[in-house]
Design brief:
The chain has about 240 residues and is α/β, with parallel strands linked by helices. The chain is built from ten helices and eight strands. The chain starts with 5 loop residues before the first strand and ends with a helix.
Amino acid sequence: MPKITQLLFDCDNTLVLSEELAFEACAELSNEMLAKKNISDRYTGPALMTTFVGQNFRGVVTGLQQKHGFKLSDAEVDDYVNRELGKVIETLEAKAEPCVGVMPILEELGKSKKYGLAVVSSSALSRVQASVKKVGQDKFFPPDHIFSAATSLPVPTTKPDPAIYLHACKVIGKEPGECVAVEDSKSGSLSAVRAGIPTIGYVGSYGGVIKQKEMAEVLNEAGAKVIMDDWNQFDDCLAQIEAM
């Protein structure tokens, strides 16, 4: 394995506790969408998160259309995506908090300068920027090393498409094998693994031991090399990958 010189972090529920906050806004607009199509099903934020965690809202809208058998025009999709972004950013700027234990790790990495640091997310760039700024993590990441599958690519996409990881590697100037990704979702792990990036699966943001064990299995099946229950295990997990 090549020497690891670059770390690529997912944002939502990996660096910042943002998924629950974001999916509340997603649920409100998703239910409005279904009501307008005369579909009786309704979603809570947690229910929507269970189905679509790791995807951006454009991916959620695509999934809802497929699941419930309706069609929106491109203009309608764009309108919902833009409305959701505004609602989510407003909420994150007020309530977002860092994931438990991540700040000391970022401080240590920032001081050592052993690895380059970047954020690779499915979420819109403005949302990711708002999240890391609110919790004081923006100082660790160069502004041009924050990447969004919804914004940074010529054609918007979402994880598990590996395009955003491949794009990040190209911009940073690293081969996938020189990087390690940290991901908390199946779609995110698949995105990194399909790009050829060794991946740490993080389950610490999931509530309860049972759910964490379930997600550990899911992330293992998605190709994560090691599973991290808590950010205090990061150094050991990274060392395991570097020793492979």
